[in-house]
Amino acid sequence: MYKAPTGGAVGGGAGLALTGADIGWWIALGIALLITGILLLHARRRRLS
Q: DSSP readout, 1-49?
Protein backbone atom coordinates (compact mmCIF):
# COMPACT_ATOMS: atom_id res chain seq x y z
CA MET A 1 0.00 0.00 0.00
CA TYR A 2 1.33 3.43 -0.93
CA LYS A 3 1.86 5.85 1.95
CA ALA A 4 1.83 9.55 1.10
CA PRO A 5 5.02 11.31 2.16
CA THR A 6 4.80 13.71 5.06
CA GLY A 7 5.82 17.35 5.12
CA GLY A 8 9.24 18.76 5.88
CA ALA A 9 12.18 19.68 3.70
CA VAL A 10 13.49 16.14 3.27
CA GLY A 11 10.09 14.42 3.20
CA GLY A 12 8.65 17.04 0.88
CA GLY A 13 11.54 16.68 -1.56
CA ALA A 14 11.19 12.91 -1.53
CA GLY A 15 7.46 13.25 -2.08
CA LEU A 16 7.97 15.48 -5.10
CA ALA A 17 10.57 13.12 -6.50
CA LEU A 18 8.10 10.24 -6.19
CA THR A 19 5.58 12.06 -8.37
CA GLY A 20 7.94 11.69 -11.31
CA ALA A 21 8.00 15.44 -12.00
CA ASP A 22 11.25 17.35 -12.16
CA ILE A 23 11.92 19.33 -8.98
CA GLY A 24 12.62 22.43 -11.06
CA TRP A 25 9.02 22.49 -12.26
CA TRP A 26 7.75 22.32 -8.68
CA ILE A 27 10.05 25.18 -7.64
CA ALA A 28 8.96 27.28 -10.62
CA LEU A 29 5.30 26.58 -9.84
CA GLY A 30 5.79 27.53 -6.20
CA ILE A 31 7.48 30.81 -7.14
CA ALA A 32 4.76 31.62 -9.68
CA LEU A 33 2.03 30.98 -7.11
CA LEU A 34 3.85 33.09 -4.54
CA ILE A 35 4.19 36.03 -6.92
CA THR A 36 0.53 35.71 -7.94
CA GLY A 37 -0.55 35.73 -4.30
CA ILE A 38 1.55 38.81 -3.52
CA LEU A 39 0.13 40.68 -6.52
CA LEU A 40 -3.45 39.78 -5.61
CA LEU A 41 -2.93 40.80 -1.99
CA HIS A 42 -1.38 44.10 -3.07
CA ALA A 43 -4.25 44.85 -5.46
CA ARG A 44 -6.83 43.99 -2.79
CA ARG A 45 -5.21 46.21 -0.18
CA ARG A 46 -4.96 49.11 -2.62
CA ARG A 47 -8.64 48.73 -3.54
CA LEU A 48 -9.79 48.63 0.10
CA SER A 49 -7.91 51.77 1.14
A: ------SSHHHHHHHHHHTTS-HHHHHHHHHHHHHHHHHHHHHHHHHH-
